[in-house]
Amino acid sequence: MAAFYRKDCELFNIPVMSSTSKPLTVFFDRDGTLNQDVGYLDSAEDLIVFPGVPEALARLNEAGGVVVLVTNQSGVARGLILEDNLARIHEALQQSIQAAGGCIAGWYICPHHPNEGCACRKPKNRLVKQAVAELNLDLTHSYVVGDKDSDMQLAYNIGAVGVLVTTSSHSDKALTYVSSGVLSRSYVASGVPEAVEWILADARRHMSEPCLNES
Ligand SMILES: [Zn+2]
Predict the structure, then answer these.
(1) Which of 27, 127, 140, 150 has CB atoms 3.0–4.6 Å from 122's, for a disulfide?
(2) What is the CATH number of the domain that holds 88?
């Protein structure tokens, strides 16, 4: 499952692609990272976006960063989440981000049950591969932001920097994974706003050629 919103972003005149050959790419988890993890969220009315998240994503876009969402939604396979409702939730999330001047360039969703053994459920990398092909991404300067160990393992699997946010009850297990030193580079942030500030500073340090727009 993938929804493709890049054209929506361009309609809003929001830069979703860097003009340089090595853009900054940030993959975000959804539940527990961008919004409160209420467990199999099935209604846009129950979507609670964490404070400062839309503005933080807008800052990434302003700096030439591409924002991509990668989420496991096994509630679809479990019959707990209707696909129509999932689309409404993503529309509501996109609207709150666009109201702050940001835009999610692509939405990549694994709807399968863990027992199905699909190739797209995080920490597997198929959804990222799909995003790279469809959005013409470059993973040279890429980050994965999430609250679970599966997010940090995804970072490892795609060679990205892992940024753990401690905004959910799942963060402890992920903290153990990050602390084990498997990832060559990682950071632990209190939430997405701090994660984004660190990513922008880190990207400026690591990009050998001028890549980020002045903001
Ligand atoms: Zn899947």
Answers:
(1) 150
(2) 3.40.50.1000
